[in-house]
Amino acid sequence: MADVFDNEVDPTIRDRLWRLIRCTPNLDWVILSKRIGNAPEMLPEDWGPGYSNVWFLVSVGQAELERDVPKLLAIPAVVHGLSIEPQLAPVRLGGFAPRLQWVINGGESGGGARPYHLEWARSLIAECRAAGAAIFIQKLGCRPFEHGRPLRLRDFAGGDTSEWPTDLRIRQFPTVSRGGVG
């Protein structure tokens, strides 16, 4: 539960992680970072075209999209994806959508959670579908809004999919073979 590309991470910890990943080729590793710009200097020497079992995701909002997605896409990986969770404002993937294989989306939970407008999720779903990217709606959070009105859910964190509008019950994963994304 740490960002492996944080400058404060001891390089020996990162080296141990890369060794573990190499020893578990049948396990897919999802590496999520807010510091994707540090990744090229912190990848192992044998990274080459990437490890076939490592998926890279970057956590973004609209403000970080233009800065961080090109850095993400420059790293060889079998899956490139985004975590837009919690989503706090509309996000448009634009020309990046066709180059992504996965988007994770959701609202914020916990004390002080900010609103999550379901129209934002629907817009991302439409962009992902048009581009052929998988999308995974994680949760609606504590303060989902639909058409400007609060949506009342029994599950405080908004994680019970049976309470969601049916068009948002989407939990897709990219189709990956050891030869790449299919």
Task: Describe this protein's structure.
By secondary structure, the protein is an alpha/beta fold. The strands form 3 sheets. The protein has a 5-stranded parallel beta sheet, with helices on one face. Strands 5-7-8 form a 3-stranded mixed beta sheet. It has one domain. The model has no long low-confidence stretch (mean pLDDT 94). The chain is built from 4 helices and 10 strands; from the N terminus they run αβαβαβββαβββββ. The longest helix has 14 residues, at 118-131.
Summarize the entry for a quick read.
The protein has helices at residues 11-23, 39-42, 62-73, 118-131; strands at residues 29-33, 54-59, 79-84, 102-106, 116-117, 134-139, 144-146, 149-150, 176-177, 180-181. With 182 residues, the protein is α/β, with parallel strands linked by helices.
Key descriptive features of the protein:
single chain; 182 residues; alpha/beta; 5-stranded parallel β-sheet; globular
Question: How many independent structural domains?
Answer: 1
Stretches where pLDDT is under 50 for at least 5 consecutive residues are none
Mean pLDDT: 94
Question: What structural class do the secondary elements suggest?
Answer: alpha/beta
> What shape does the CA trace take?
globular
Q: Sheet bearing the most strands, described?
A: 5 strands, parallel
Let me know the number of strands: 10
N-to-C order of helices and strands: HEHEHEEEHEEEEE
- What distance separates the N and C termini? 29 Å
Strand content: 15-25%
Helix content: 10-25%
Strand order in space, largest sheet = 1-2-3-4-6
Number of H- or I-type helical stretches: 4
Radius of gyration, CA atoms, in whole angstroms: 17 Å
